[in-house]
Amino acid sequence: MIKLNWSEYLSEFFGTAIMMTIGIGAVVFMWSEGSAMTALIPSEPWRRLATGILFAGGGTAVVLSPLGQRSGGHLNPAMTLAFWLRRKISHRDAAMYVIAQTLGAVLGVLIVDAVAGDAAATVNLGMTMPGVGYSATVALAAELVITFSLVIMVFWAVDRRSVAPFTPYLAGVLIALLVMFEAPISGTSLNPARSLAPAALMGIFDHLWLYFVGPIAGAVLAVGVYRGLGGEKQATGCAKLHHTDQYPCLFEGCGYRRVEAGTVLLREGGESDRAYVIRRGEVAVKKMQSDGQDAVIAQLGPGDWVGEMGLLLNLPRSASVIATTDLEVEPLTRENFEHLIAAHPDEALRLLRQLAIRLHQADQRQTL
Predict the structure, then answer these.
(1) Residue 301: which residues within 8 A CB-CB, separation 6 or more?
(2) 78 in any annotated domain
(3) What is the CATH number of the domain that holds 157?
(4) What letter would DSSP give residue 255?
(5) Considering the entire predicted model, what is its pTM?
(6) Quick check: 131 and 187 in contact, CB under 8 A?
(7) Alpha carbons 331 and 274: distance in angstroms, whole number
(8) Contact, 216 vs 192, CB < 8 A?
(9) I want to staple 73 with a disulfide (CB 3.0 to 4.6 A). Which of 31, 63, 279, 346 is the partner?
(10) Consecutive 10-residue runs of the chain (368 residues): their mean pLDDT?
């Protein structure tokens, strides 16, 4: 039976709807005919910045909210595409996310239209169009560049544990600045669903194609460049823009894996394809004795490594590791193991200390 992650899909749907309600509402508030903000902030660049702060602020708030913590807070088909190309999200989940984002964007614009009425119509429900004096080709190139910059920044942030908690804020600041400086060229869409929703409701599709092609091309280019720069080798994050331990994670290669008590994390004699750092909870290390019974040889907890010897020496597992409580662990493959050690000296020191303790204990057992 195919598993559908409805809670995540609905979170992405409502999250996108909220972002669009706030964002398109900000466009109407700042730019509609007769708006008091025209007199209050007569400078268009500063009014664009204020619009960008509100739009991006709404998105950041959603990513930080329980909705974003559950779904990962993509809110954008281009972002989902980028993580799908990195094999961080399954085909099925990626397709459902895009559908949820598109429908959520439509709902958000419908809410603004219902509330703002004529004022919303004066700005075409916040449609994105090439700016005056700019061709469709220039607008297309601009959308490619700004989407590329956003996706690359998100990749860089989520793959660095010390930076990952700040990903929503960094993305919000970047989007706000892009709205301020780039909006006169293309309208700063970055998001096919964001452009499709108002265009569909207005029935105006003249330049809609470029708001699909530009962001999609930017996302694809970002994935290629990130791989070319060796980003995949240091990838320790997942496809969530804000990862907490409050909700399970459906994404592949997640740097934070939740494990239920009683689960066999590693099995003696199995392939050593990854190690784990325990972030929360405890495990028992068991080894098969000559009488065929398992004996507990160690109890490990937060900060301890498991499976590192097999990964370092490329040998089969020397013992089994069973979760004695619910766990949160960070998986490490051969591809990102060396990066973690090089980029985080504290982890390297903790691993060396743990190896030294185990060697000392083994030596004591031999001398008894």
Answers:
(1) 278, 281, 282, 283
(2) yes
(3) 1.20.1080.10
(4) S
(5) 0.77
(6) yes
(7) 7
(8) yes
(9) 63
(10) 83 98 97 92 96 97 95 97 93 96 98 95 96 96 98 92 89 97 97 97 95 98 93 73 80 71 84 78 85 79 78 77 84 64 65 67 58
